[in-house]
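Thread title: Can someone regenerate the structure for this chain?

I was given the following input by a collaborator and told the matching structure tokens would be attached. They weren't. Posting the sequence so someone can regenerate them.
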Amino acid sequence: MSTYVISDIHGQYDLFLSLLDLIDLKDDDVLYILGDVLDRGPHPVKTMLKLMEMPNVICIAGNHELMAIECLDVLTQEITEASIEKLDRETLDNILNWQYNGSRTTLMEFRELDRETQHEMMEFIKDFDLYAEVTAGGRDYVLVHAGLGNFSPEKELWEYSLHELIWTRPDYNEQYYPDKYVVTGHTPTRFIEENPRPDRIFRNKNHIAIDCGANIPGGRLAAICLDTDEEFYVDNPEKG
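Best answer:
Regenerated them for you:
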């Protein structure tokens, strides 16, 4: 049994399938997905439905899942005078923010689903964990989408706010734990200034950043095996 981690698929369904083939995922392996399955890429909902069929997958929420759930509950309601009146400023701001962050492909595919499947998908996302603690290969890991905002060594993981877990980027130059590795997505590694290997997994001071820009032309979808520390990559064929 092996433990793998992938993050920020962003609708790149074909890259995801290729990466599953590359790591040769077995039924008794465990695969953690560190959020941002949805938005931007061509097949976010198709990817989510694939994850729903995989019993050995554990999903952790990303900011794009949060934006989707905040908006889909509203957008899938029957349009009535009463429902329109409930569209307050905060709700409208959430919808605009999601639109700005690449909701179009998610909405397009979501609208093609029957109502039952829509409901099942939303319930599946609402059950996503916010973080996970894993031991593999003799090492301890904290898995979270974005980082541990306002980090304090005295702070328990459950004490972090939703925003600190799924939006706030970590400080890669600060070692959070002496005896744990923090594995994150959210920040494409090409945008980490001190990264000598753009679009590849970045490691520094017990940080492991694995969002290698799957949805960026020239980027990659990456996986890491926590047991062996092996890295796996599938390239985005679009040229940067």
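The CA atoms of residues 57 and 180 lie 22 Å apart.
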